[in-house]
Amino acid sequence: MSGETSGFHLEGCRILVIGGAGFIGGFVVQELLKEPVAEVIIYDNFARGKMDNISKSLQDPRCQLFPYGGDIREIDILDKAMEGVDYVFHLAAMWLLHCKDFPRTAFDVNIAGTFNVLEACVRHRVKKLIYSSSASVYGDAVEVPMTESHPFNNKNFYGATKIAGEAMCTAYNDRYGLPVIGLRYMNVYGPGQDQHAVYSGVIPIMLNKIDRNEPPVVNGDGSQAYDFIYVEDVAKANIRALKSPVKYGFYNVGTEVQTSVRQLCDLILKLTGSSLQVTYQPYAPDDARQFVKNRIGSAQKAKEELGFQYSISLEEGLKKLIAWRQAHAIHG
Asked: What does pTM read for this prediction?
C-alpha cells in the first residue's frame, strides 16, 4: 500500500524535526519541503548537526530553526518547541562509538532524551511520531536477510539505547495511543555525513585515505558484509512512514543488497580511478567486540506496508558522494 490516499496528510501541517540539522535530518527537512506543509521547524543542539546541512532549506520561508536551542535533555525548551506541532521526526542521537566512549551521556541523550520526546508528544497531542532507530538492535545476523522479527543480539551501548527507545515507543503507543513508527536504518552514507570526525563511517574513512594517496585499510579479511543505503533514500523512507496509514510498527530501511567491505573498497577504488592496493589488518580486540560482521536487512515489510523501496544503487550513490566531496573541496 502506498498510503497516499488513506494515510496521514501533510497539507497545512506544522512538523518538528528533532536532529534536523544532522546528516539524515537535513535530508528529511529537504524532502518535507517538497510537500505542501505549512511549516518545518528544525530542533538541533548542533553537537553533530551543521548549518551546511540546512542552509538551503532555511531559504524556504516555511522552514525555520527553533530559536531557543535544541537539546532533547532540556524538557522545558523541548516542550515549547512542540507547541502547535502536528507531526514529529526524532532523529537526535549519539552515534555508536560515541556511545562506547561516553555511555552515561549516551543514556541521557538516547534513552532519557527519547523519553522526553515521547512525553512531549503525548502532552501536545502529536498526531504521529517517526523514530529513528537502527539495525544495531539486531547485532550480528543469524539469518540473511534479517526480517523485523530477527532477535535482538546487540551487545554494544548504542544498540542498547535504540532497543530501549523502541521499547518506550511501544509502551507509549500502548498506554496513550500515540501513533509511532520506528525505522531501523542499515548502513547510511552520502553527502553531509561527517567526513573527518573520529566517529566517521567506513566510506568516508576509505575516501580520505585515497585522497591522501594512502592504501585503504580493511579490518579482517574484508568478507564482512553490510547493507549500504544512500541518505536520500533514507529521508524518503521517513516521509513514506509519516504519510502511510500505519499507526504503529518497526521497519528496516535498507536495500536488501549484500556488499562485502572488500567489494565496497574495490568499487571505491574504481570510481576514484585509484591504483592503490588495499591493506588488510587484524581487528583490534575492542573493535572486534564493537563491530558486527554481517548485517543485511529484509526490505519487504517496508515495501508492502509503507510503500517504500530504495532507488539509488551503491555505485550511483558513491558517485554522488564523490562529486559532493569534490564540489566542497573535501580532502583526506
From this structure: 0.95
Give the Cα separation of 64 and 15 in Å (integer).
11
Give the three-state DSSP class for 241. helix
- Tell me the C-alpha to C-alpha distance, in Å, between residue 281 and each of 131, 199, 211, 255: 37, 19, 20, 28
Query: What integer pLDDT is reported at residue 2 of this predicted model?
Result: 39
Residues 274, 279, 282: CA angle, nearest 5 degrees? 155
CA-to-CA distance for 114 and 117, rounded, in angstroms?
A: 5
Task: Decide if 170 contacts 238 (C-beta within 8 A).
Answer: no
Give CA–CA dist 210/275, Å, rounded. 10
Q: How far is CA 308 from CA 2, 23, 56, 180, 301, in A?
A: 8, 20, 26, 17, 9
**pLDDT for res 220:** 86
Q: Which of 158, 172, 185, 230 is catalytic?
A: 158
Contact (Cβ atoms closer than 8 angstroms) between residue 24 and residue 234: yes
Query: Residue 251 contacts by C-beta under 8 Å, 6 or more apart in sequence?
Result: 148, 181, 182, 183, 184, 237, 241, 301, 302, 305, 306, 308
Three cell numbers, residue 149: 522479527
Superfamily grouping for domain 14-189+229-256+296-311: NAD(P)-binding Rossmann-like Domain (3.40.50.720)
- Judge whether 323 and 17 are in contact, CB under 8 Å: no
Residue 274: CA count within 13 A, CB half-sphere: 22
Which cell numbers in the block locate residue 259? 556488499
Cα–Cα distance for residue pair 22/27, rounded to 1 Å: 8
Q: Domain residues of the chain, as ranges? A: 14-189+229-256+296-311
Residue 131 designated active-site: no
Q: What are the pLDDT digits (tens) for 198-208? A: 666 889 999 99
CA distance to 13, 58, 112, per residue, from 80 (Å): 17, 20, 18
Alpha helices by DSSP H, the chain: 23-32, 75-81, 96-101, 103-106, 113-123, 157-176, 202-211, 231-243, 261-272, 285-290, 300-301, 314-327
